[in-house]
Design brief:
By secondary structure, the protein is an alpha/beta fold. The protein is built from 10 helices and 10 strands. It catalyses: 2 GTP = 3',3'-c-di-GMP + 2 diphosphate. Keywords: Phosphoprotein.
Length: about 300
């Protein structure tokens, strides 16, 4: 689990309040501040987001409730715990703050020692949640994304491609004659081979949005947003070469003495009502053709138009 200091974002239009909270937390937290709602949202959406947000209610322009609602409506910031710290201590206000998604509501004047413990509890819970989320999305053998993570990312990428009128490329690939590899070298060696293949494949991807996942067994999938067929083929060639360059021995009469992969590439221009499964089936079909054609090769094609007329 992450051992760096947790990052706390303090949002308050009063400098003196920021100083009090900042001094209380500074030894144990990395403190980030915002003096209005707009900059609070910016900091929450930053590349390194805060682990917790301490939010004032009464602020000019955008009040704390509005900031909290916007944070909870955005998938990128929804899971950051928010604690209101405010002089508006009435029961109705507190109930409202909790209703819109805050994990806690602290009325002033507060006990610094108690507040600090409450913050610590919520940060620990958040870190545990992050840890389990990571575990549930990761393939334990190879450390890359698992099928569940792929399914989620694929659904989101399809929607995003639909909105932006962009193509979406998909690569399915599979280690050749892997049953024979296991039979010859043993299952533990097969596991190590899959780990090395996964690392090589992962190292061949350059765009942050591209996702490599273990699809199952010795099969991997690669999701390439905003990529057409030519782009998909270019990535497929890099993946294929990376595995070849590993130069892992594979003694089997039907492989070329080293571990190789067969690769299928397909592309779709998602349209409303289109079926995301068709692109997966298309990439799978190309992979099947690569196997049937002799393995250790790439087969690309079969744009799925889904009625958009752009394929
Ligand atoms: N060591 C190891 N083997 C695995 C793992 N997952 C799947 N396999 C093995 O991968 C093999 C896949 O075999 P097949 O589906 O027959 O395919 P293949 O032998 O690779 O043949 P082609 O795909 O047709 O080239 C099976 O023997 C599985 O047991 C794993 O996590 N570790």
């Amino acid at each position: 689990m992450n051992s760096a200091l947790p990052r706390v974002l303090i949002v308050d239009d009063e400098r003196s309040n920021i100083n009090i909270l900042g001094n209380l937390l500074a030894p144990d937290y990395e403190v980030v501040v915002a003096i209005d709602g707009a900059s609070a949202l910016r900091r929450a959406r930053a590349a390194t987001p805060p682990d917790i947000i301490l939010l004032d209610v009464m602020m000019p322009d955008m009040n704390g409730y509005d900031v909290c609602r916007l944070l909870k409506a955005d998938a990128a910031t929804r899971d950051i715990p928010v604690i209101f710290i405010t002089s508006m201590g009435e029961e109705d206000n507190e109930a409202y703050g909790l209703d819109i998604g805050a994990v806690d509501y602290v009325a002033k004047p507060f006990s610094p020692a108690i507040l600090k413990r409450r913050i610590q509890t919520h940060v620990e819970l958040k870190r545990l949640r992050d840890h389990y989320q990571h575990l549930s999305a990761t393939d334990p053998l190879t450390g890359i994304a698992n099928r569940r993570r792929f399914d989620e990312a694929y659904a989101a990428a399809w929607q995003s491609a639909l909105r932006r009128h962009e193509p979406l490329a998909l690569i399915m690939l599979d280690v050749d004659r892997f049953k024979a590899y296991n039979d010859h070298y043993g299952h533990p060696a097969g596991d190590r081979c899959l780990q090395r293949v996964a690392r090589a494949l992962h190292g061949s991807l350059v765009r942050a949005d591209d996702l490599l996942a273990r699809y199952g067994g010795e099969e991997f999938v690669c999701l390439l947003p905003a990529t057409d067929l030519a782009g998909g083929e270019a990535v497929a060639r890099r993946l294929h070469r990376a595995v070849r360059e590993l130069d892992l021995p594979h003694e089997h009469p039907e492989v070329a003495g080293r571990v190789s992969i067969s690769v299928g590439v397909a592309v779709a221009w998602p349209a409303a009502g289109g079926e995301p499964e068709r692109l997966v089936a298309e990439a799978d079909l190309r992979l099947y053709e690569a196997k049937a054609g002799g393995r250790d090769r790439i087969v690309a094609g079969g744009a799925v138009s889904d009625g958009s007329g752009q394929a």
